[in-house]
Amino acid sequence: MAEIISGTELRSAILDELRTEVAAMRAEHGIVPGLVTILVGENPASVSYVSLKVRTALELGFHEVQDNQPADISEADLLALIARYNADPAIHGILVQLPLPPHIDETKVINAIDPDKDVDGFHPVNLGRLLIGDERFPPCTPAGIREMLIRSGTPIAGAEVVVVGRSNIVGKPIAVMLGQKGTDATVTLVHTRTKDLAGHCRRADILIVAAGVPGLVRPEWIKPGATVIDVGVNRIGFNEKTGKPMLSGDVAFAEACKVAGKITPVPGGVGPMTIAMLMKNTVLSAKWHLATNR
Ligand code: NAD
User: Residue 243 pLDDT > 90, yes or no?
Assistant: First the structure.
């Protein structure tokens, strides 16, 4: 049976490390990382993501500003708000929770964030830095995947990696990151137009699936002993008892466990790592601002 890579356990280890770093920063320099979370409107999923981020930041000892704005805020007012936080020296990370209401252009908003405070890593400048091997803030979900591979002792250099899905926030950046000099995997990026998806997947020493299709990857698509990272988070029903949605990944988990060497569960896999990486990026940003006196 496959070894389970627990994102919940790894998150807790990473947060412990960050808590120590924050305490040292406060003791040595009298500053702590500052994070603003901007939430527009009251989309229930966004409210719950933001409150988890806020809680985690406070637990780590960050200076945390929770800035909730009404759903009808104008695009110009939101851009002005971002400009204010760009200029605020106590803020090292700016997070705008997506999605935004339809009257606001998300690209404009992402592009308005100072790339040196873009702890989500979505700004084109940071994605460009990633591409040329000058990583500043890696996007949080791909960073979490890489951390899971490293901390679970999965060999990456020379490994055949197959990434299913080519989104800007998961598939494309993780493909670039793992193929980068120093990490040295051989990466294949597959998608909806790929011929023989199963054949590609079967060659993978590391199979990363971010398609958003429940149960897409069947056990016969998995090379025996491979490490499988399931990024998918799909709502497949509602649990009347807990009052919570039932979630499933993109991999047929129970059957895959019989073939894979290591595998991540859903929930409790990549999801918890994403928040840990957001916190890590904010600490990195605070350190960078300290070192460069900005
Ligand atoms: P997306 O929804 O923007 O795009 C999906 C990608 O998968 C596309 O590139 C598409 O070509 C590919 N794809 C879809 N169906 C396919 C199929 N049948 N065969 C091959 N390729 C296929 O992607 P996203 O935003 O990266 O999200 C993917 C999944 O990951 C979703 O379930 C999402 O909820 C989840 N997700 C989880 C986290 C986390 O923190 N755990 C973060 C981001 C996304």
Answer: no
